[in-house]
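User: Can you help me understand a structure? I only have the sequence.
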Amino acid sequence: MRAFFLVCLCLASPALAETPAPKLGPNAVPVTADNAYLRTNPAPDYWAFGPFVKPQFTTSACSIATVTAAVNGLSGLPPHAEDTVTTQPQMLELVGNAEWAALSAEGGDGVTFDQLAEFTKATLAAKGMAQTVSTFHPAAADAAALAELRRLLTENEASAKDALLVYFNQGVITGDWDGPHISLIGAYDAATDRVLVLEVDQEWYVPYWTPAPVLLDAMVKPTSAEHGPLEGQTGGFVRIGG
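Assistant: Let's start by predicting it. Here is the structure, written out as tokens:
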């Protein structure tokens, strides 16, 4: 659910050129710069899901990219040489939901939070998986919501038997694009209260750490009117559990 509009400005003098913005703002630290937690802790989700996180195949496909990564990670590497790792288009075909396919196509509107939960359930059913789906959809970034967010992250960090899909305003974390986005949680470092987001928007980013309160802020920021049918949408977690 990302679109960029580039404007070329003809400047009379190089001195008038603006200083380029940094790749990430102060609320995001790339895993390439900070990976000590992953080397000194089990981090089961990172190792289970990280290898299956692939770039979203269109600019509107963050939902199917994230669901595919989660389902592939929960299923593990297929056992036989002739078995392929399910791709995003293959997963859409398997689920057979024309609405999801249209929303994920290039130029599609992207999905709402409720649709993400609905399509995740449909994917598990299509794959014959027994896991259940639950949601955390905070109304405000208050103390109670932050406590619940930390509880879910701590529980999720204990094993790779469940997965947390996060629906959030990407720009709150990256400092760049202001719009709704979906990715997968890769780890939670409780000692520093930071969350690792396994980005599917890999044309622009790699996985990054962000403070848990910032992630909550990103969940509750409403989508602006420029995003049409998604205006007013807020986010949260869609959890695939045992």
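Now, to help you interpret it: The chain has one domain: 27-76+84-241. Residues 27-76+84-241 form a domain with the Cathepsin B; Chain A fold (CATH 3.90.70.30). Let me know which part you'd like to focus on.
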